[in-house]
């Protein structure tokens, strides 16, 4: 089987506006959550979010172009440029052999909110002619393809909060099929706005805590819901042979992928955890590994009561007596919805290469969630492989097996 490697990574999220800042803050266990400043959130009953701070898209994107892009696409392009620079992607692959497979759970929600507000105030004739192209979910993939002149397949993946992980898995398979040498993949989301926060608050899915350090508490007994995050994560992945032939630095491996459906409920996970467990087993098997070869799980870990209980059961089903270490980086970044899996994959790969594990930024663990949470007292496992879990509304389950830069020697 063709090995698929990561040669570039870029991100913008609540921990930092680039890869270096994000990883430095992850290493220090910092919480990127703050009081909401983007709008007056008082009426929503929600106080805390994982906002991207001091974002200036024009540092990497022409101002004229940026005005034609919704914020989620700005995040996507901004992070992709960083990833491409790290991968030294320019002129490294024929356009026909370069593809884009990119995820988002909601897409241009900022544009939708702005244009509906304008329509309500001034009538439908005042809707921007750019409304549709700015709002549609596939535009992040389309803009990346145009910017990087990718003439292979370009499409969007939409599996709610599993979107980015699903996209990376599809990108891995696309390379292994021989239809591309390099794929730009990941996910982007920009839902920290009144309609995004208000909508999830109406579902009673969000934490209403007012202290940012006590708002996102994955696997904690006192958890009360997730904290909305925003941003993007982009990975440049390619066949190992292609990367070696061009002398690219290998940052890690996308070693396996699994995906299943709960077929249970629109928003609630199946409490048995059966299908997420099956997705984990699929991913491990596709990487030609055993559960014992996995040293760490970057959990979906949203800090909702239902998800964390279900995911704990699923992890126990897969790993049994092998006490794999678990944490959720959503305690630092918030939940980036369709972008979550990409940012978490980047953080997991960085952790493997740094031989450290992201701490579970949380309070006292829930005894009903029987997982071994990462804390200061744990020794870093010697195995170079980890899982990254993502589960989405609609019952979508997606899991990656990731390997560090030296996973195969």
Automatic annotation (TrEMBL):
Q: What is its EC number?
A: 2.3.1.179
* All copies of domain Ketosynthase family 3 (KS3), residue ranges: 1-404
Reaction catalysed by this chain? Answer: (9Z)-hexadecenoyl-[ACP] + malonyl-[ACP] + H(+) = 3-oxo-(11Z)-octadecenoyl-[ACP] + holo-[ACP] + CO2; a fatty acyl-[ACP] + malonyl-[ACP] + H(+) = a 3-oxoacyl-[ACP] + holo-[ACP] + CO2
Q: Which Pfam families would you find in this protein's record?
A: ketoacyl-synt (PF00109), Ketoacyl-synt_C (PF02801)
Catalytic residues at 161 (for beta-ketoacyl synthase activity)
Q: Which GO terms describe its cellular component?
A: cytosol
Question: Which pathway or pathways does this protein act in?
Answer: Lipid metabolism; fatty acid biosynthesis
Q: Name one GO molecular function term.
A: 3-oxoacyl-[acyl-carrier-protein] synthase activity
Q: What class of enzyme is it?
A: transferase
Keyword vocabulary terms for this entry: Acyltransferase, Fatty acid biosynthesis, Fatty acid metabolism, Lipid biosynthesis, Lipid metabolism, Transferase
Membrane as a keyword of this entry, yes or no, is no
SMART domains from the entry?
Answer: PKS_KS
Acyltransferase in keyword set? yes
Cited InterPro entries: 3-oxoacyl-ACP_synth-2, Beta-ketoacyl_synthase, Ketoacyl_synth_AS, Ketoacyl_synth_C, Ketoacyl_synth_N, PKS_Beta-ketoAc_synthase_dom, Thiolase-like
One record GO biological process: fatty acid biosynthetic process
Cross-referenced Gene3D superfamilies, in alphabetical order? Answer: 3.40.47.10
What role does it play?
Involved in the type II fatty acid elongation cycle. Catalyzes the elongation of a wide range of acyl-ACP by the addition of two carbons from malonyl-ACP to an acyl acceptor. Can efficiently catalyze the conversion of palmitoleoyl-ACP (cis-hexadec-9-enoyl-ACP) to cis-vaccenoyl-ACP (cis-octadec-11-enoyl-ACP), an essential step in the thermal regulation of fatty acid composition.
The family note in this entry says:
Belongs to the thiolase-like superfamily. Beta-ketoacyl-ACP synthases family.
What's this protein's name? 3-oxoacyl-[acyl-carrier-protein] synthase 2
Gene label: fabF
């Amino acid at each position: 089987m063709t090995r698929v490697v990561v040669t570039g990574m870029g991100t913008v999220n609540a921990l930092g506006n680039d890869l270096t800042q994000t990883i430095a803050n992850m290493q220090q266990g910092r919480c990127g959550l703050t009081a909401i400043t983007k709008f007056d959130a008082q009426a929503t009953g929600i106080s805390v979010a994982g906002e991207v701070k001091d974002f200036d898209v024009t540092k990497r994107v022409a101002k004229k172009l940026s005005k034609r892009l919704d914020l989620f696409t700005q995040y996507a392009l901004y992070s992709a440029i960083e990833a491409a620079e790290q991968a030294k992607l320019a002129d490294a692959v024929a356009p026909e052999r370069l593809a884009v497979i990119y995820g988002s759970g909601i897409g241009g929600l900022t544009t939708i909110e702005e244009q509906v507000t304008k329509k309500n105030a001034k009538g439908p004739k005042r809707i921007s002619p750019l409304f549709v192209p700015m709002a549609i979910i596939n535009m992040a993939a389309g803009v990346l393809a145009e910017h990087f002149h990718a003439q292979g397949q370009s499409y969007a993946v939409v599996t709610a909060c599993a979107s980015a992980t699903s996209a990376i898995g599809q990108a891995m398979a696309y390379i292994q099929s021989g239809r591309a040498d390099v794929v730009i993949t990941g996910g982007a989301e920009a839902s920290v706005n009144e309609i995004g926060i208000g909508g999830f608050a109406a579902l009673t899915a969000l934490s209403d805590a007012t202290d940012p350090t006590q708002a996102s508490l994955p696997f904690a007994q006192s958890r009360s819901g997730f904290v909305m995050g925003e941003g993007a994560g982009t990975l440049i992945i390619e066949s190992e042979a292609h990367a070696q032939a061009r002398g690219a630095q290998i940052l890690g491996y996308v070693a396996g992928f699994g995906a299943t459906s709960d077929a249970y409920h629109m928003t609630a996970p199946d409490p048995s955890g059966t299908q997420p467990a099956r997705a984990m087993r699929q991913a491990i098997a596709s990487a030609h590994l055993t559960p014992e070869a996995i040293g760490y799980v970057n959990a979906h870990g949203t800090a909702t009561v239902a998800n964390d209980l279900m995911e704990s059961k699923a992890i126990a089903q897969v790993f049994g007596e092998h006490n794999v270490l678990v944490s959720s980086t959503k305690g630092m970044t918030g939940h980036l919805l369709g972008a979550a899996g990409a940012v978490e994959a980047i953080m997991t790969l960085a952790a493997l290469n740094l031989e450290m594990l992201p701490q579970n930024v949380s309070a006292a663990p829930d005894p009903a969630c029987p997982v071994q949470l990462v804390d200061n007292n744990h020794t870093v496992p010697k195995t170079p492989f980890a899982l990254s879990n993502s589960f989405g509304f609609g019952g979508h389950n997606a899991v990656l097996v990731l390997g560090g830069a030296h996973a195969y020697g």
